[in-house]
Design brief:
This protein has 282 residues and is α/β, with parallel strands linked by helices. The protein has one domain: Rossmann fold (3-Layer(aba) Sandwich), CATH 3.40.50. It contains nine helices and seven strands, in the order βαββαβαβααβαααβα. It has a seven-stranded parallel sheet, sandwiched between helices. Helix 3 runs parallel beside helix 5. The longest helix is centred in the first third of the chain and has 21 residues. It is globular.
């Protein structure tokens, strides 16, 4: 299967590279705003350098592809309209239009938990404790918490329009990704430890502990994320589906039942298996 990955060198794209690039079932092309030098850990791959806000620049990359995994976006929840409009709205249109014009069958969209972020705003921090009881699924009312989250909701709806009203793509999967960390921080302590390294958070503080509790609920390991992508690419039954992207964490509030039932998603990791970061406390 020939697969184009947009935003290939971000946290989620590199998880696909790490866990699926060597899979003989796939021939990947990586589309990114910039390439990486040959000696970079992600250098030397087949890279199409273009910005998704430029339709003419990205369009040739879609020719001959069987599937697109669309991850390129402005990714920050504190962004305003000027930040998100071009990449997240215009870019979404360009990628879907290019996929349609190139007759690409399968489209996997990197959506976000922030489509449902107001639920967390209302229930935190008690929500981060085991057994809280909230469980969100694909058919619960959308409640974005930001301009960013709103653009991801738009992307889901635009995908619905394309599979219903346009000839291609014929399959659309929206993954509401929770928290995928970079390589080297791929654990529920990763976000907090990064802030410790930056000097903005103190290990053992109330803020540190709260962030770890949240990540134990929201973490999706890189191998679980890549596995979920693989499940979508191998599926032949779904026309349109919205699925939560999270590992099998005991305290998660995003349900993975539909992903298990429809796609065979079987995550291997659980944030509760970690009780300390894999670093020295010195």
């Amino acid at each position: 299967m020939d697969v184009l990955i947009t935003g290939a060198y971000g946290r989620c794209g590199t998880a696909i590279i790490d866990h699926l690039d060597d899979d003989p079932a796939y021939n990947f092309t990586y589309l990114n705003r910039s390439d990486r030098p040959a000696d970079h850990p992600y250098g030397g791959f087949d890279t199409y350098v273009a910005d998704i806000t430029d339709y003419e620049a990205i369009r040739p990359a879609f020719d001959g592809q069987d599937a697109v995994v669309h991850l390129a976006a402005y990714p920050f929840v504190d962004g305003d309209w000027s930040d998100v409009c071009g990449p997240n709205l215009g870019g979404m249109y360009n990628v879907l239009a290019a996929a349609c014009d190139a007759e690409v069958e399968t489209f996997v969209f990197g959506s976000s938990n922030h489509v449902m972020g107001v639920y967390e705003e209302e229930h935190a921090p008690e929500l981060y404790e085991p057994g809280y009881g909230l469980s969100l699924d694909w058919d619960d009312p959308v409640r974005p918490d930001s301009c960013y989250g709103t653009t991801k909701s738009f992307g889901e709806d635009f995908g619905r329009y394309y599979v219903d009203m346009q000839p291609y793509p014929t399959q659309f999967y929206a993954l509401r990704i929770c928290s995928v960390r970079p390589e080297g921080n791929d654990h529920p302590y990763g976000k907090a430890e990064l802030q410790v390294a930056e000097g903005t958070l103190e290990r053992g503080s109330e803020q540190y502990d709260r962030l770890v509790k949240r990540e134990k609920a929201m973490w999706q390991s890189r191998r679980d994320f890549a596995h979920q992508i693989d499940c979508c690419l191998q599926d032949s039954s779904v026309t349109f589906g919205i699925y939560n992207g999270v590992s099998d964490n005991d305290r998660r509030w995003f349900s993975i039942q539909r992903a298990a039932d429809d796609l065979g998603y079987a995550p291997r990791d659980n944030g509760e298996e970690w009780d300390e970061p894999p670093v020295s406390s010195e």
